Amino acid sequence: MTNMLNLTLKVWRQAGPDQPGRFEEYTTTVADDASFLEMLDYVNEDLIAHDQEPIAFDHDCREGICGSCGVMIDGQAHGPQKGTATCQLHMRKFADGSHITVEPWRAAGFPLIRDLSVDRSAFDRIIESGGYISVSTGAAPEANMIPVPKDVADAAMDAAACIGCGACVAACPNSAASLFTSAKMQQLNLLPQGQAERWRRTEDMVETMEEFFGSCTNHGECQEACPKEIPIDFIAMMNRDYLKAKFANRRRGGQRKAG
Amino acid sequence: MPHATVARPGAEAPPVHKPVDRNAPWPVQFWQSAVGKKWLMALSGVALWGFVFVHMIGNLKLYLGEKDYNEYGESLRTLLHPIMPNHVVLWIMRIGLIGAFVIHIVAAASLTQMNRRSRPVGYQSTRDYISANFASRSMRITGVIILAYLIFHLFDLSWTGTGATYVRGDVYDNVVGSLQRPWSAAAYAIANIALGIHLFHGTWSMFQSMGLNNPRYNSIRRAIAFGMSTVVAVANLTFPILVATKVVK
User: Fold this and answer.
1) Fewer CB atoms < 10 Å away: N or C end of chain B?
2) Contact A122 B13 (CB under 8 A)
């Protein structure tokens, strides 16, 4: 049976990157089977009906797989439910009469665009620097030509579950992007197809990450916030690979010094 | 290299950290990177851990009496004598320790500044932390307490003494004399509780920073950190307690 919830929201409103921001209070009544974003939709429809600016927030698939949505809800990235993106968080998680505070991700690497919407393109810079493999185009090779042990495939798949929402950065007390970067790196470093560029990828992705984001101090907040429950084990693997990458001399014997 | 050449469209995030100089020698590159600095913090942490542990074991000789304890103190000066000249091994260890302290503290200060720059506008509502604990969030505070006490400790028992009767070489009486003063015992206790808290997060954290990650022992990393830090803190705390209760005098 559907219950109706009376809620008081405190939402961060900011007209633009350089404008002053503040919390605004809104009240709404919503069915408990609405998602958190649907609840914000109702608030926005109300605002539009009263000729006011709707709250800007990012969203797309609303199925928890695109990584577009994400806000701080009562001080937790993606809210109180573990392993759940904001769009898949349902209002039944909140009690009638709740006060809910909604704030955007805060990090130097995620400049605020408007209200709850931030620019996460620093993540794209990290991917561009090495989050890919270079392959010859043409017909897809026969999948079973390259043997991959099942446990390795499973570990790589766990890393590949990352949707790039930025909750790890938002939840980290240091605004570090280690969980995102390590997941995007290890999904390739673990597999045979990722070996050719492994050490270059590791150096490039770590050092691009460090241009925009903070440094990991092993609090573990990121794995708690991650809607895909990616473990910080991948951060340890990244740290190990970074040392190897710096040690590895990729120039071979007999090779002339370049330039 | 690629990150230097890629065009950055749209609202650009400000850089918070200088790029690593790829033309520098690799140890320099390692120091310039935050992941590299965390490695060096972990390695220097292992060295400092070794010192704290051996120091604690040595101090337990206090319970064997004045003669044993003073002999132990003197034996540190003559370590590996006559293979090496007197004091040489002691100085090698001292220089190594000073180096570990400098690396640990400078890297921590540099990473702290980087992390401050990484969130110029903080959360305006209250954060609700899930796994970050008191130990992990107070590393900078416990670290500074330990450093402050270390400086006092060196003056107190190695350099000049701090008011109580101080006789160079009379290690047993110096320690007991110092800890018989309540304020000195209290400072000692506070510093060692801070040390235990610092070691708890530090020990767990060094596994992560050095990539020591294996499903075989991942589940016991926190237990190892708790056990090791508790042993050091509790053993150290027995000294002022037993002096205060006049078991050791």
Assistant:
1) C
2) yes
* Contact across the interface for B35 and A217, Cβ inside 8 Å: no
Q: Is B11's CB within 8 Å of A246's CB?
A: no
> How high is the pLDDT of residue A258?
59
* Owning domain of residue B204: 34-120+133-244
A134 and A67 assigned to the same domain: no
Domain contains B88: yes
CA-nearest residue to B125 within chain A is A75
| Chain A partners within 8 Å of B205 (Cβ) | 217-218
Q: Does the structure show a pLDDT above 60 at B9?
A: no
- Domain assignment of residue A252, yes or no: no
Nearest of A165, A197, A190, A200 to residue A79 by alpha carbon: A165
Residues A206, B35: contact at Cβ < 8 Å?
yes
Residue count of chain B, please give it.
249
> In this structure, is residue A258 part of a structural domain?
no
Of B20, B131, B213, which is closest to A207 when you measure between CB atoms?
Answer: B20
Pairwise CB contact (< 8 Å): B6 & A243: no
Interval B92-110 mean pLDDT: 97
My answer on whether A46 and A77 are in the same domain is yes
Among the candidates A113, A135, A155, a domain finishes at: A113
Question: Based on the number of CB atoms within 10 Å of its own CB, is A44 exposed (0-12), middle (13-18) or buried (19 or more)?
Answer: middle
B11 contacts chain A (CB < 8 A): yes
Give the count of Cβ contacts less than 8 A between chain A and B.
Answer: 191
Say if B218 is an interface residue toward chain A (CB within 8 Å): yes
pLDDT of B156-186, one tens digit each?
Answer: 999 998 988 899 889 999 999 999 999 999 9
Q: Could you tell me which of B46, B238, B200, B15 has the C-alpha nearest to residue B114?
A: B15
Q: For position B141, which CATH number holds? A: 1.20.1300.10
Residue B24 belongs to a domain: no
Domain count, chain B: 1
pLDDT in tens, A192-229: 999 999 999 999 999 999 999 999 999 999 999 999 99
ipTM: 0.92
Q: Domain holding A238: CATH number?
A: 1.10.1060.10
**Residues A7, A39 contacting (CB under 8 angstroms):** yes
pLDDT band at B2 (very low <50, low <70, confident <90, very high): very low
Helix (H) or strand (E) holding B129: none
Is B190 a member of any domain?
yes
Instruction: State whether residue B180 sits within 8 Å of chain A by CB.
Output: no
Same domain, A71 and A131: no
Give the model confidence (pLDDT) of B113-142 as tens digits. 999 999 999 999 999 999 999 999 999 999
Q: State the residue range of the domain holding A187.
A: 121-247
- Element at A155 (helix H, strand E): helix A150-160
A19 with A56, same domain: the answer is yes
Query: How far is Cα A158 from Cα A154, in angstroms, rounded to an integer?
Result: 6
Q: How far is A48 from chain B (nearest CA, A)?
A: 26
